[in-house]
User: Fold this.
Amino acid sequence: MYVVAGLNTGTEYYRAKYQSRCIRWINENMSKHNTRGDDIKVDIPEPLIIKKVEDEK
Assistant:
């Protein structure tokens, strides 16, 4: 299990079984495109890390 967490606060933003899904979630939810689609603005509230955690049973 992997977690997307804030580096400064430790806030957990997203949890997934695979690291690739965490990366996809960051790309889909933390970036904005303009109407033409050629300009990408990243809007991340704090530095994010992806860390591996134990599976909950």
Observations:
- The two ends are 11 Å apart (CA to CA).
- The chain has a mean pLDDT of 86.
